[in-house]
Amino acid sequence: MVNLKKLCVGALLATTICGMGALTPSAEAGKIEDVQARGILLVGSTGDYKPMSYLNKETGKYEGFDVEVAELLAQSLGVKVQYVPTTWKTLQADTMAGKFDIAMCGVTRTFAREQKMNMSHGYLTFGKTILCRKADAKKFTSEADLNKNSVRVMVNPGGTNEKFALSNLPNCTLLVHPQNAEIPALIAEGKADVMITETMEARRYVRDDARLAAPLLDDPFTKNHFGILMAKGDQDWLNYVNFFMEEKDMDGTLDKLEDQYIK
Question: How far apart are CA 98 and CA 70, in angstroms?
Answer without folding.
Answer: 17
